[in-house]
Every structure is written in C-alpha cells, then in structure tokens.
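Progress report, Aim 2. The chain analyzed during this reporting quarter is listed below.
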Amino acid sequence: MVPVPPLLAQWAPSVSLQPLTPPVQPGWSRFNPSVVRHEGTTTIAVRSANYRLTEAGRYEMDDSAIRSQTVLVDLVDGRATRGRPLAIESGRTPSAYPVHGWEDVRLFSTDRGVAALATVRDVDESGLCRIALLLPAGDDRLREVLVTSPRPARHEKNWAPWSTSSAPRAVYSWDPLRIVTIDPTTGATSLDDRGSSGLGPATRGGSGGVELDHGEWLFVVHEVHPTATGRAYLHRFVTIGADGLVARASPRLRLTGFGIEYVAGAAREHDDLLVTFGVGDRDAWLARLPLDGVLDRLQPLATRAAVLA
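Predicted structure tokens for the chain:
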C-alpha cells in the first residue's frame, strides 16, 4: 500500500473541475467520459449504465443484465451542450451473456473523422471482454470492427488509443511498453514490444494520447491499490518521447478523493489540457489545466523519487 498521495488540485492548483450531466435514462449513471479534439471541435463521450456500485463494491440493478449506452456532448465556450446518443452499428446479434453495450468508449481523432476503442462482452456466450474498434460511419454514428487480441483468451480492457495518420494504434501495456497496431478492415493486430518502461507492471491505460510538440505524446495512466474499504485508483501523467519510449512522469495523484476514480480521456484545447474522469461509477467530470503547468511538473523517469512519491 502506498502513502496517500496529493490531490490533483494540490499538485496543480490552477485546475478547474466541471461536472458533466447530460440527460440519461431515469436511474442511470454518468461516468468514465472520454474526450477528443477534432477539426476545432471538442467532443466528450459519457458512459451511462443501469447499475449502481454500492459502498461495499457490489453491483446492483433492477434488470436482468448490465447495459451501457454512450452520450455525446460538445464543449462550446467551455460549457457542455445538450447530450445526444452515440449510435454504434455492429452487424451482429448480441449473445445472451448478461452484459450488453459498449463500455468506456475512448474517442480519438483520425483522418476520416472521430473513431473510438471500447470494450464489449456480448460477442459470444463466454462473456470474454473484447476490444472493439469503432470507425466513423456518419454523424454521431460509429461502426464496429472486432479486434483480435494478441492473447486471444485474455480479457481485454483499457487499451489507450494513439492517434495516427495510418492504421490505428494503442498502448497495449505500459510495463513492459507494448504498442498494438490494428488493421481497420479485419481487426487483426500486430504487437511492438519496446521493453521495460520503469513505470511498474501494475500500470494500466487510462486516457488516449495527446500530441505535444517535438514528437512527444502525453497520457494519463492509473494503478489500482487495495484499501480497507475497497479499491483506490491512483493516476499519473506520463509522456512517450519521439523515440517511442516512456520519457517523463508525474507523482501518483488522487483526483477528488481516495477511491474508484477513473480517467478515460485527455485532449489538448488551445493552451489547456482537458482530462475526463469518472467517480464511483456514478459521476462524470471534466478537469481543465494549463498544459504548460502540467508539463513543467513532469520529471524524467530515471528520477525514481519523482515517480514513486
């Protein structure tokens, strides 16, 4: 167990926090939003689900299955517009496995429009977590291509999309650092193993990549730690340099408390960094920080005290 780390607002006092509250079905939650900046428009995808996470960490619902939907909002002058549903076409019949819909849709920008990665469990009766590549198919509409895992029997979640002008890429694991490239037609994957990153094997994906200057990319990653009352998610800002290796990192940070907090998106909007996250599988939030202020606080990964503080 690590010592309780600082809050985001203590580490970066200039941060501002904004709740995201698009309309959803009665009794459904809003959480784990992602964000993308594409052709001058900032769009946020907010997950909504029909279950409740109790204080004891149990899932409760008034239904025979867990169901997820995604609501889109645009940011205009810093304010979220009224939500609208994201339509996803799969061309398949969902299995009877009682978890339906696309979970934690992570938006990213491509030459052909806004795309996404998501987790889906109703592909077959096993309920195995699969990654779906969601490609542009019209306004507020995406088309599913099921992705082949590098380890087909493994539950797959939390791939961090890395925008590119060619085939979609994602960070598959952070330590060792492995980058996966996805064939957008077939969903086949190839894996590039770049060796140990120094972040630690418990590090998992959170946001997609934010392009910086000089070939550098910024991500937000997390670790899960047990507590006396459940789980605590701790986050770090991490960069990958032009050489394709992890370069700099922040200390571990809490966002608003010490529990289930989950970053699913990050984007650059002019001089600001936008970070989107969920709390307790019930609330969705947007954090806005001066980008230079974040980058100035990062330390080279070789400075272990800066990473492990």
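Residues 270 and 291 are 9 Å apart (CA to CA). The chain has one domain: 8-308. These observations will guide the mutagenesis work planned for the next reporting period.
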